[in-house]
Automatic annotation (TrEMBL):
The lineage of its organism: Eukaryota, Amoebozoa, Evosea, Eumycetozoa, Dictyostelia. The chain crosses the membrane at residues 5-21. Keywords: Membrane, Transmembrane, Transmembrane helix. InterPro entries: Cyclic_Pdiesterase. Residues 286-306 have a biased composition (Low complexity). Residues 283-306 are annotated as: Disordered. This is Uncharacterized protein.
């Protein structure tokens, strides 16, 4: 008797909860569940030290700089920054783990814009692809109806409408054609940043991004941590099967460099079985060049992007 009452009570509660959820798909859910996340490419260790060092020099010349890299925030290259539904974090993690890929980064220009000083990254196909892919994959999890910031409302047309449309659909004004990869070096309301950079000499710098991170966002778009994810490319193996008429099934056909998230052991296993399969397939025929290709690629185990 007690048990029946208990179950009945339970299902009434469930019905009541689902009613609330279904009929409050707007502001109430947003207020409860929104979390700002920055999905970004990380720096390798050398570049990290270099950027932290520049930031330290900048802060000694510009004492009002609010960005303290290496101490309170992490240098990063944002691929996508928006408010997500906190309940979707596990889906975001799952989807991103299958998409991570490294890119070559060329840092080649200091730009002072408003209160920000940024080290611009020369955009390239790999970076644009990564940002587009991350946005396409995860925008289904954003908080809808995000506010349009003032600076966007003040832009001239047609940029204003373009960015407003992007915010409405993707929760960010800086995606797709508006993606401008950079590392933020400073945010300063008082010091003359142009004068600061005249005193510093910052040569161009190149590196390969070692990982994709997902972290909390602080003031001025800083990244506070990588507490939701850090997908390393270190264990990644890049295959060169450009001339292979039958590429292995675990390679994504759209992009030979894009291997879904298999750990190193899985990839080696798949690779070995692929080679065995190939060897038996070709062992009886007279195409030594094909066999040679297989043997050569077997040694291609570096994670650099050519
Ligand atoms: C997000 O969800 C987690 C786990 O449910 C919770 O601990 C955390 O406080 C939430 N964060 C926000 C900003 O709502
Ligand atoms: C980079 O630094 C981290 C932490 O300081 C360390 O664990 C890692 O081994 C370093 N990586 C390389 C390639 O030196
Ligand atoms: C971090 O902050 C502390 C005190 O605020 C300072 O002494 C230290 O030099 C800072 N570290 C870096 C890397 O800037
Ligand atoms: C992202 O989506 C757009 C629009 O659907 C599509 O044109 C584009 O190819 C996609 N890009 C990636 C990298 O997924
Ligand atoms: C900032 O410094 C630059 C370069 O030294 C100078 O040309 C400019 O006039 C300064 N701006 C202000 C507001 O002082
Ligand atoms: C290669 O030859 C062996 C022995 O003659 C045979 O068993 C095998 O099926 C052949 N492989 C192919 C792919 O033809």
């Amino acid at each position: 008797m007690n048990r029946v009452v208990y179950l009945l009570f339970n299902s009434i509660v469930l019905i009541a909860i689902s009613f609330i959820v279904n009929h409050n798909n707007g502001p109430m859910l947003n207020a409860v569940n929104a979390i700002s996340l920055d999905i970004h490419l990380s720096l390798d260790n050398n570049t990290f030290d270099l950027v932290v060092g520049y930031n330290k020099q900048i802060r000694s010349l510009a004492p009002n700089d609010q960005i303290d890299l290496g101490n309170t925030s992490l240098p990063h290259i944002t691929l996508y920054l928006t408010d997500f539904d906190n309940n979707s974090i596990s889906f975001i993690q799952q989807d991103l783990s299958e998409k991570a890929n490294d890119c070559e980064i060329l840092l080649n220009q200091i730009v002072v814009q408003g209160q920000y000083a940024m080290w611009y990254v020369e955009n390239n196909d790999c970076l644009q692809y990564m940002s587009d892919l991350v946005v396409n994959t995860t925008y289904q999890y954003i908080v809808p109806n995000q506010p349009i910031p003032d600076w966007v409302l003040q832009l001239p047309e047609p940029l204003r409408t373009l960015k407003i449309d992007m915010i409405e659909k993707y929760g960010s004004p800086n995606v797709f054609s508006q993606f401008q990869p950079h590392i933020t070096l400073a945010w300063d309301q008082y010091d003359n940043m142009t004068a600061v950079f005249e005193e510093l000499s910052i040569p161009d710098h190149t590196y390969i991004s070692p990982s994709v991170g997902v972290g909390d966002v602080g003031n001025y778009g800083t990244v506070l941590n990588n507490q939701y994810a850090l997908y390393n490319f270190n264990g990644r193996i890049h295959f060169q099967f450009a001339n292979d008429p039958n590429p292995p099934h675990f390679l994504n056909n759209k992009n030979n460099n894009l291997i879904s998230n298999l750990n190193k052991i899985d990839i080696i296993d798949l690779y070995i079985s692929y080679i065995i399969q190939k060897k038996s397939k070709y062992s009886n025929n007279t195409h030594p060049s094909t066999t040679t290709t297989s043997t050569t690629t077997a040694t291609t185990t570096h994670s650099t992007c050519d």
